[in-house]
Backbone:
């Protein structure tokens, strides 16, 4: 299938340890075949920091705390974070990083993969990023410079901003079984939902996106990822697929796969996170009802007749 399925136990962690920064990283997005979005699992050592303090100028980031507790450092202020918290960092806003508490801190970091305009002058040894100029290939490396700058100062934790929300404090839909964490925490260009299905229950009906990419992470329970080909793909011999998933499974559904996806919970129920981009020109197709959702104009239409195009002519 286009996209993929991986499990975090099968993804080799990479140690990142330098000065006050220390932890293990797993590239779950790439392991699952994601294209336009990314996902890292970061297991931060007790008392250590996740990354140099930084600000993404073009990408929006969403973090979900899996285990442990610690501090979110943002522009010099610190906020307590713990298991079940969702943090949103808008592009070009606060400089941020994380520090683990005494028991460590484990987070999922979701982000966009954008092409950034960087012009390189290799003979001159410089490059420009937007309006700024940077040196190329000079020592010390950025992480070494961060270590030389010293560990960020930490004062008393402040009242948490609206961009940090707790799972238990977010109002749920469908009897509390679905919670929109990202939008509640003020995300603008991406979203993160928490979904919990009863045994044998189903999530969103089978659907496929024309422009948006989705990533799913199973937090608890077990179930089945069900894939349904488009009418054209079915005419060409494609058939329905079913893939078993359980806690730790990571599923990517890139845009334009022409394979609708849905989830069905197993005997112990199924709880997962659903991350995706928000594209104004996205069109969603629901094969069971033969409906199209035009996201940009908020219109849903039922198809009376289908003419197929392979997209390659």
Residues:
């Amino acid at each position: 299938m286009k996209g993929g399925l991986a499990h975090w136990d099968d993804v080799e962690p990479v140690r990142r340890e330098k000065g006050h920064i220390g932890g293990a990283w797993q590239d779950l997005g790439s392991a699952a075949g994601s294209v336009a979005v990314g996902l890292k699992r970061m297991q931060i050592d007790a008392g250590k920091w996740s990354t140099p303090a930084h600000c993404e100028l073009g990408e929006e980031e969403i973090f979900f705390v899996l285990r442990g507790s610690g501090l979110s450092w943002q522009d010099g202020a610190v906020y307590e974070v713990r298991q079940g918290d969702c943090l949103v960092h808008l592009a070009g806003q606060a400089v941020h990083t994380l520090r683990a508490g005494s028991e460590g801190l484990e987070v999922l970091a979701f982000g966009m993969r954008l092409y950034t305009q960087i012009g390189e002058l290799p003979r001159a040894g410089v490059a420009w990023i937007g309006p700024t100029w940077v040196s190329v290939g000079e020592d010390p490396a950025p992480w070494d410079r961060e270590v030389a700058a010293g560990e960020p100062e930490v004062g008393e934790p402040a009242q948490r901003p609206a961009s940090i929300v707790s799972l238990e404090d977010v109002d749920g839909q469908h009897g509390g079984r679905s919670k929109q964490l990202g939008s509640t925490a003020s995300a603008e260009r991406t979203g993160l939902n928490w979904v919990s299905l009863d045994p044998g229950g189903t999530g969103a009906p089978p659907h496929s996106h024309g422009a948006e990419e989705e990533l799913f992470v199973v937090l608890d329970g077990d179930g089945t990822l069900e894939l349904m080909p488009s009418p054209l793909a079915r005419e060409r011999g494609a058939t329905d697929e079913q893939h078993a998933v359980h806690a730790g499974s990571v599923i990517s559904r890139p845009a334009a796969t022409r394979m609708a996806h849905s989830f069905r919970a197993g005997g112990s129920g199924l709880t997962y996170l659903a991350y995706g981009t928000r594209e104004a020109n996205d069109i969603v197709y629901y094969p069971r009802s033969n409906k199209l959702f035009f996201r940009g104009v908020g219109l849903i239409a039922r198809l009376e007749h289908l003419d197929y195009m392979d997209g390659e002519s």
